[in-house]
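The authors assume throughout that readers already know how a fold can be written as discrete tokens. A single example would do more here than another paragraph of explanation. An entry of this sort, consisting of the sequence and the corresponding backbone structure tokens, reads as follows:
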Amino acid sequence: MKNNLLWDIKRFYPKEFMAGKEALNIIKQQFGIQLPEDEADFITMHIVEAQMNQTINDLDGLTQFIQKVIQILKYTCHQEIDEHSAYYYRFVTHLRYLAQRIFSNQISIEKSDSSMLDIIKLLRKF
């Protein structure tokens, strides 16, 4: 089964993806079966799901949310982002927690803060 979010999963959850790759190595050593890299992605999704107490469907939405925010940021600022920098990983971590709060309806937006509300409505459309 092919996972269309493989590239994003690698970028947004690098430590968890490394654990998924290690799981593939263990499977190969124990059973002599070489599974495709996409399987490491699915293992990664389960690890992240357990960490965030979200379902896989939510995790797809969370990952796409992060991807869209980064695309909007690149487009708006007219510059590339160094995806290997500590700042990038910290930013993605903050986006992960923001997305988790939005998708689980834990975030409370005051009606008076219409600009923030408009941004979140725009991002939820993606």
Remarks:
- The first helix runs from residue 6 to 12.
- DSSP finds six helices and no strands in the chain.
- The CA atoms of residues 70 and 95 lie 9 Å apart.
- The two ends are 24 Å apart (CA to CA).
